[in-house]
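Changelog-adjacent note: as of this version, every example in the card shows the full chain rather than a window. The one below runs 230 residues end to end.
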Amino acid sequence: MAKKKTFVLVPGAWLGAWAWRLVVPLLERRGNAAYPLTLTGMGDRVHLATPQVGIETAIQDVINAIVYEDLEDVVLVGHSFAGKVVAGVADRMPERVGTLLFLDAFRPANVRTPQGDFSVEGWPTLADGWRIPLTGEILRSIGKDVRGADRKWMLSKVTPWPKTYAGDPVTLSGRWDSVRKAFLICNGGGDDVEAILKEKLDGPHRVLETGHWPMITRPAELVQAMLEIS
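Full-length structure tokens:
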């Protein structure tokens, strides 16, 4: 019998715990535990958004969830920009993380200098200058498979992404080096999959036939891949 696992699910830009709504019951139905999180300033915690919320806030959000839920040997899943969040968590508490799973996510390099500053990508902002909206152009470019009812539901839930989450880099000490890593890459998520596969990925990988948000468009396939690779 396969060992039951504990998944901590960290959403990417514009999302909250709501984004994992279709994934959680599928994991639990197979005997696993799942903890979907919302980072400060996003989703149901959008009322806490300020220009001061940054990557350290997000890292502490996840650390606190793991500590206060008494979780051990977790599969820590980071989607999109949250790749730098979960890497920061694993670097602080590697003893609590069994597998670090990057879901179409930023993949930190094995360096000890700041990395993961996405501010140079020229994100559009709202009039306040510190929040990034999910535009139709972004959705069409990396989420062509988000259609119909899924698209309507997603757009009713997304919240602006604090610009500091994009711009704040993460600095890793190397404690995370010992943590097992795995990678799920979406072939419609906007990245050059062929180039990624030429990298020396430090762990097993799978390519998903989806856009950037498989938890919304292909939850069953995503869960199967998560269980197989973690």
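Structural remarks: Residues 6-229 form a domain with the Rossmann fold fold (CATH 3.40.50.1820).
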